[in-house]
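Fill in residues.
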């Protein structure tokens, strides 16, 4: 890959440039939602069939049209009508995907303590285009610069990595510049900043893995293996520690092997005792556009489908909503 992948479909990027174009079914979906939340009680099945069964672009149109029609944000209606894990996810579905990611960042940094894993899963390994969009949307929603927020919530290696990622500094791949000779030079610089010195220059390591476009980063990795007999991931494992190490490896692998890395991230939300429902919800939501390829990798690494994992780890309307979202990405999968 010449550039880091986009998690948003092209239709979303185009829609954000101006007023979206509707088709008649959108008004029907808006009325279905209105009817599902009128009177006593909420028709969760209707919400699942209306919001859960739509792709990212359709949900964006529904949210925009609902606001136009009833002068109320769809997320505010969902906040009033739903609760629990189901409520958290349906509220995120009621937002355009960039707004949903901004909300996820807000959730990760709200209250006592920071959910670092949730934060790095959103910010690390992103394309320049989507990092810039995310910063704009976050500022518009919360009137706060995302870099300032990150600087106040994180420290050490994690802080350095996130601030570097937020610069949106990935270079455009140019085969005349990003050649094997330069890859060897950068591999040597990576070694000199890490394994080759007393003390680690984390900023230099992060600068290299953030600037290099994926295809070129793979060339650096190959050059590193040829000279050091292990890859960049192993070098980061040796030089970093704790959550900073996990986040840096996540960023590296989202550039080198994004679909497998996303599959491993989904799997990790269900590892150990108990399920990280918020992490699982955010992963299925954010990776929905690329989910078909992620699902193939998930089977390869765990011998079970994403649907199998969701069914075994969740229950009730929450499970039904997640399964419906999987069906949207890959109708034959569920």
């Amino acid at each position: 890959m010449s550039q880091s992948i986009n998690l948003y479909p092209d239709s979303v990027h185009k829609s954000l440039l101006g007023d979206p174009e509707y088709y008649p079914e959108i008004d029907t979906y808006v009325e279905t939602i209105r009817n599902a939340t009128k009177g006593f009680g909420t028709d969760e099945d209707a919400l699942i069939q209306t919001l859960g069964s739509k792709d990212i672009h359709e949900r964006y149109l529904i949210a925009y049209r609902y606001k136009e029609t009833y002068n109320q944000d769809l997320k505010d209606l969902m906040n009033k009508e739903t609760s629990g894990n189901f409520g958290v996810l349906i509220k995120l579905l009621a937002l355009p995907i960039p707004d949903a990611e901004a909300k996820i960042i807000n959730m990760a940094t709200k209250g006592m303590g920071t959910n670092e894993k949730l934060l790095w899963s959103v910010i690390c390994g992103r394309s320049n285009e989507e990092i810039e969009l995310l910063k704009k949307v976050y500022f518009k929603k919360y009137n706060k610069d995302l870099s300032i927020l990150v600087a106040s919530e994180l420290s050490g290696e994690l802080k350095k990595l996130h601030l570097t990622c937020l610069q949106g500094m990935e270079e455009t791949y140019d085969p005349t510049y990003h050649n094997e000779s330069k890859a060897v030079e950068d591999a040597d610089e990576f070694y000199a900043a890490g394994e080759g010195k007393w003390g680690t220059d984390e900023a230099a390591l992060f600068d290299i893995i953030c600037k290099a476009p994926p295809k070129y980063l793979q060339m650096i990795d190959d050059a590193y293996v040829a000279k050091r007999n292990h890859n960049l991931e192993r070098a980061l494992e040796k030089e970093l520690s704790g959550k900073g190490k996990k986040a840096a490896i996540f960023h590296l692998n989202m550039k080198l092997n994004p679909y497998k890395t996303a599959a491993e991230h989904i799997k990790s939300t269900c590892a150990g005792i108990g399920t990280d429902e918020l992490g699982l919800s955010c992963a299925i939501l954010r990776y929905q556009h690329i989910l078909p390829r992620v699902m193939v990798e998930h089977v390869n690494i765990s011998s079970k489908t994403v649907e199998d994992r969701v069914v075994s780890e969740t229950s009730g309307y929450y499970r039904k909503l997640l399964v419906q979202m999987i069906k949207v990405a890959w109708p034959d999968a569920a």
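The first helix runs from residue 10 to 15.
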